[in-house]
Amino acid sequence: SEGLALAPSGVVGQGGIMTDAEEERRRTGEKSRAYSTTSWERTPDEIKVCRKLEEISVEIGAEHITAVAIAYLLHVAPFVFPVSSGRKIEHLQANIEALDFTLTPAHIKALKDVLPFDVGFPHTMVGDGTVDTYLVAAAGHTDRWQQ
Which residues pair with 83 in a beta bridge? Predict the structure, then answer.
C-alpha cells in the first residue's frame, strides 16, 4: 500500500531448494557448498517445501523448481526484485525461467500452506518482545513491565 519495493536476497535458499533427485546426485558425487551451516543437505522443512515446488513445476511444465520459487516470490508482492546468484549457467537459466509462467491463486495457496510463516532474521534473533531471546537472556536479567 506504500508502494515500497522489496529486494530480498537468498531467494532460492542458498542452494537448499532442490529436488530429491538433485540431492541424491550431490550425495553420491557432486557434493555442494555449505552456505551458513556445515551441511548442504536439506532440513525436513526444506524437503516439504521442495516437494510442493516440484509438484507445481510438473503441473505447469517448469524445468526448475527454483524457477517456481522465484515466480512465487514475484506473485506475492507487487514490487519485488529478487537478488539471486548462482555458480552455474543452469542457475541463471532457472532464474530467467521464473519470468515465463504465471502461478494461479491455487498454486500460491498451496505453497503458503506447506509451512507456517517464518518471519526470519532479524526477528528470530531479537524476538517480538514477548519472551527473552537467547541473546537477551545471555546479556542478563530482564524485568517485564505490565502495560
Answer: 9
Residue of 68, 89, 83 whose CA lies nearest to 18: 68
DSSP alpha helices (H): ranges in the chain?
20-25, 44-60, 65-76, 89-97, 105-112, 123-126, 134-139
- SS3 state of residue 80: strand
What pTM, to 2 d.p., does this model score? 0.74
CA pair distance 124, 84, nearest whole angstrom: 22
Question: CB under 8 Å to 61, separation ≥6 — which residues?
Answer: 101
Better-predicted residue by pLDDT, 86 or 75: 75
- 110 burial level (CB within 10 Å; 0-12, 13-18, 19+): middle
pLDDT, tens digit, 9 for 90 and up, residues 126-146: 777 777 887 778 888 887 777
